[in-house]
Amino acid sequence: MSPSESTPTSAVPIALVGRHDEVGSSVAEALRPEYEVTHFMSTETAVITDLPYLLRGESPPSRPHNENNTVGSGATANRPVQAVIFGRGFTQEQTSVLYDEFVHISPKCLWVVGDAKNRGEGDGPPPNLAEIIVPVFKGLLKDGVGKDGGMVYY
User: What digits encode the pLDDT tens for the residues 136-145?
Assistant: First the structure.
């Protein structure tokens, strides 16, 4: 049985978007068991291509941009994501454009987006990022998943 055909769990399915696979992996692990990262995307192209499928609870087609991705369970079939978390490698402008493009597919999906004023210095993620950010994500998800959707900032 492939991951996308596995038995649904009680964990809330979410998509994770970030520039660094190693950060995505540690964040996905730390969000368990309440939340399940079903799919990870590291480029804007991947988001544009894959997110519409994920919002509808469909498995995205295999794409070269995602063939080496090992982050996420792959359990996407019949499980629309309830939230999309964007790392701070994506700007508010990028995420706003994407939100406007895709919100009609799943209006109640929560979009968790990095606030530009809270972005750290340097190009890469800080050490131990998952330990720092996952409690913030869990709080935002607990307060927002299953409600009215929209964008929230961290």
Answer: 999 999 998 9
pLDDT tens column, 4-44: 444 456 899 999 999 888 899 999 999 999 999 999 999 99
Contact 49, 65 (CB under 8 A): yes
- Beta bridge partners, 151, equal 111
Comparing C-alpha atoms, which of 96, 92, 77 is closest to residue 39? 77
Instruction: Note whether 109 and 12 are within 8 A (CB).
Output: no
CB atoms within 10 A of CB 129: 20
Q: Residue 118: what are its φ and ψ, rounded to 5°?
A: -100, 5
**Do residues 83 and 154 touch, judged by C-beta distance below 8 A?**
no
* Encoded tokens for 119: 């972005």
Residue 85 contacts residue 31 (beta carbons within 8 Å): no
CB 136 within 8 A of CB 154: yes
Q: Which residue has the tokens 């769990």?
A: 9
Evaluate the omega torsion of the peptide bond into residue 64 and state whether it is cis, within 30 degrees of 0: no
